[in-house]
Write a structure and sequence with these properties.
The chain is an alpha+beta fold and about 280 residues long. About 40% of the residues lie in helices and about 10% in strands. It has helices at about 5-10, 60-80, 110-120, 165-180, 190-200, 205-210, 215-230, 235-245, 260-265, 270-275; strands at about 20, 30-35, 35-40, 45, 130-135, 145, 150, 160. A hairpin with a 2-residue loop joins strand 2 (about 30-35) and strand 3. Helix 2 (about 60-80) runs parallel beside helix 5 and helix 4 (about 165-180) packs across helix 7 (about 215-230). InterPro entries: Aminoglycoside_PTrfase (IPR002575), Kinase-like_dom_sf (IPR011009), Pseudomonas-type_ThrB (IPR050249).
């Protein structure tokens, strides 16, 4: 329930988040027993807006990507000044194993990649401008789109981690589910570019941290693989290892590495293309 304190703080900072609802007894949660099991229940305000939809150009476009990134940047920026009630850490810190399925331990080649990435991530510096409370799951199904902003919810995975990690998770899921629409339009670089443009307008990041985003995206791909891993499905394993070898997230996904530099967003080139649906 300590996360609720953070949500109220974000709301006071004018971020659009769904707040928890209290029971008739004035509590944020209640316990219910059913068939010998005890459950903790909580409820939240319903967010206004609509789900994303890559088939609807009004709900999956450059403006949506930009608002999404700006929300995250604003959240990270405002959270730098947040002090938890009683100065108690409200969530645990990133360890690398939170989102990995246990079955990956039975797949030595991929488990080795995961362990190497975890070691790299845990060796990164932790400063106020790079590390703090993050959503850790702000993918397209965890916000609603309303006109020129997004309304975010589902903060139950939040933890202390790098801002670039939060970005990497959001971008990975956006590309996983929405990099192409049914007509074959490729949103890959538009999604990344407009998201980061929105993010950087609210919370500056150095090139050092922008450069780390692809690593965090790669790690999220390993996590995704672990959720569905079966030793009988060798095709998924081969596809993953091929992508790792070719330094690609997906076989049909080509990312412009310039997108992970501040110079790109300060250039006339980006300004001319800003808020268009697809980059060439």
């Amino acid at each position: 329930m300590k996360t609720m304190d953070w949500l109220y703080y974000l709301k006071r900072q004018n971020l659009s988040v769904s707040l928890p609802l209290k029971t008739l007894q004035g509590k944020f949660a209640t316990c219910v027993e059913n068939e010998g099991e005890t459950y903790i229940l909580s409820a939240f305000e319903k967010a206004d807006g609509q789900n994303w939809d890559k088939k609807d150009p009004q709900r999956w476009n450059a403006a949506v990507f930009n608002h999404w990134g700006r929300f995250m940047g604003d959240m990270h920026c405002k959270t730098k000044s947040y002090t938890p009630a009683n100065n108690i850490d409200i969530r645990h810190s990133f360890t690398g194993r939170e989102a990995l399925g246990d079955s990956i331990r039975n797949c030595p080649p991929v488990n080795k990649i995961a362990e190497d990435l975890i070691a790299q991530m845990l060796s990164l510096p932790k400063t106020k401008d790079s590390y703090g409370l993050i959503h850790y799951d702000l993918h397209p199904w965890n916000f609603f789109i309303e006109k020129d902003h997004i309304n975010a919810f589902d903060f139950d995975d939040s933890l202390y981690g790098w801002f670039s990690l939060d970005i990497g998770i959001a971008l990975y899921h956006g590309l996983w589910w929405g990099r192409k629409d049914d007509s074959g339009t490729d949103y890959t670089n538009s999604l990344i570019g407009n998201f980061l443009d929105g993010y950087l307008s609210a919370n500056p990041l150095s090139d050092y941290w922008l450069d780390k985003i692809p690593m965090f995206m790669k790690f999220r791909k390993i996590c995704q693989f672990s959720w569905f891993y079966s030793p009988h499905n060798t095709d998924d394993l081969h596809n993953l290892l091929d992508c790792m070898e070719q330094d690609r997230l997906f076989a049909d996904c080509s990312i412009d590495k310039q997108l992970f530099t501040n110079r790109f967003y300060q250039s006339a080139n980006f300004a001319a293309q800003h808020h268009i649906a697809v980059y060439s």
